[in-house]
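Quiz preparation item.
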């Protein structure tokens, strides 16, 4: 594992950052304009003292003006998912859909017992673990050599493989992430705590206004379910068969359309309904569809944000980041422990005959080794790397109308991976069932807007659509 801060470390760059942040801190009560406030922050030590005093009072929004770009090498997708799920960072990740991962390597934890102490068979267990993980990588290579696309073969990869990413994050988000990994529930995972400690060291070295505070900051842990688990028997994990919409804003089409009228005419909802009724009498066409089309193709689309839809979604680990990276929705993902049931997994539909047998045998063998490790009384926190990309889990998410349109544009396109495409086809179908006008705008842009942005990589569907329109 290697994590480095890219740029922003020279004395000149640091002095400029401190001046910018101090300006933000001083501005709200400064008599002059913003440029005068900026010019008044020339003294580095005074500016640094001002920043410390302000954030010490709990006003940390000013440090969001400080930004860091970090390179993370040889971290696992477990860590990757945590970072992407924080929603406070920008990120670019090496694609598992386009790159062969046969030789990327993998992470090996030190195995602890259930008391948290290093297991007395640690070295023996690590040797057995490494042999199992290499076997899974060998299966991946065999699948690729049989002609299986890497985006399908990756479902057999264990979630200890090495990933690489670039992360951009402001100082407030960096502090929160570092605290979460070193003091929060995530600190029980040795890899994540190691990453957190590296981030803390980066803060101490490069963020002078947080350097003295980071060790003393508190982080509240949620231990309620630990108490519940002591009282309740362990439930069988049941993976849903399909996407299920469990809640939504009543009358979503009406809410969106009336919001459009209320916003424009600055009137009550009752008055907006009266205006809509008058417009219906004035137009020969469906005025509600006209308004919805206008909203769907506008730049702002704030009216779409007035409604929301809550879904429970069965999804594989391989595809989880595809939905997590869409940050404009509220998502609940189960913690890595208590361990999920490794028997809940999906098989890519492209696997047939020899490739299918290879896949199933590798999954079965991995479960056998995992059970052997469990019988050694190893802490579950160190066993999470036995999860495979095909592992299934249920997630919960709430998406507003605008986010639903955006995600469906990306994920119902034929270029999207098959599983995520099927998920958002179901999402779009569910929304269309309760909001038919909005539902007409949920789909790939070739269908909703008669345009494709894929250029030379277009699937060609847009050509058929335009051709049929001209006939």
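Solution:
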């Amino acid at each position: 594992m290697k994590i480095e801060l890219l740029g922003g470390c020279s004395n000149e760059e640091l002095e400029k950052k401190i001046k910018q942040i101090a300006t933000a801190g001083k501005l709200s009560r400064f008599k002059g304009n913003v440029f005068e406030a900026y010019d008044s922050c020339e003294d580095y030590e005074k500016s640094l003292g001002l920043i410390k005093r302000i954030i010490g009072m709990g006003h940390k929004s000013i440090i969001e003006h400080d930004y860091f770009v970090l390179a993370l090498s040889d971290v696992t997708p477990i860590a990757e998912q945590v970072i992407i799920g924080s929603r406070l960072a920008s990120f670019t990740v090496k694609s598992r859909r386009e790159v062969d991962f046969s030789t990327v390597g993998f992470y090996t934890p030190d195995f602890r017992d259930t008391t948290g102490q290093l297991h007395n068979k640690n070295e023996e267990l690590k040797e057995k673990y490494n042999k199992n993980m290499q076997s899974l990588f060998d299966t991946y290579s065999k699948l690729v050599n049989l002609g299986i696309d890497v985006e399908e073969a990756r479902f057999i990869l264990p979630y200890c493989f090495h990933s690489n990413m670039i992360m951009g994050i402001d100082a407030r988000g960096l502090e929160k992430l570092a605290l979460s990994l070193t003091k929060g529930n995530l600190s029980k995972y040795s890899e994540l705590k190691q990453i957190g400690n590296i981030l803390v060291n980066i803060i101490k070295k490069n963020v002078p206004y947080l350097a003295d505070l980071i060790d003393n900051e508190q982080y509240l842990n949620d231990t309620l379910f630990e108490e519940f688990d002591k009282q309740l028997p362990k439930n069988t994990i049941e993976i849903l068969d399909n996407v299920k919409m469990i809640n939504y804003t009543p009358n979503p089409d009406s809410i969106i359309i009336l919001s459009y009228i209320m916003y424009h005419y600055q009137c009550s909802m009752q008055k907006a309904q009266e205006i809509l009724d008058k417009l219906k009498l004035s137009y020969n066409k469906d005025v509600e569809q006209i308004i919805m089309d206008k909203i769907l193709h506008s730049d702002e689309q704030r009216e779409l944000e007035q409604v929301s839809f809550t879904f429970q979604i069965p999804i594989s680990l391989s595809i989880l980041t595809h939905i997590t990276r869409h940050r404009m929705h509220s998502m609940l993902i189960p913690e890595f422990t208590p361990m999920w049931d490794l028997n809940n997994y999906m098989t890519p539909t492209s696997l047939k005959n020899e490739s299918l047998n290879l896949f199933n045998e590798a999954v079965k063998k991995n479960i056998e080794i995992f059970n052997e490790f469990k019988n050694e009384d190893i802490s579950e926190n160190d066993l999470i790397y036995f999860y495979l990309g095909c592992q299934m889990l249920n997630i919960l998410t709430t998406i507003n109308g605008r986010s639903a349109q955006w995600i469906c544009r990306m994920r119902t396109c034929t270029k999207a991976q098959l599983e995520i495409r099927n998920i958002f086809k179901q999402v779009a179908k569910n929304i269309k069932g309760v909001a038919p006008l909005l539902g007409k705008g949920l789909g790939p842009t070739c269908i909703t807007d008669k345009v494709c942005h894929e250029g030379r990589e277009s699937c060609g569907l847009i050509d058929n659509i335009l051709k049929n329109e001209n006939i």
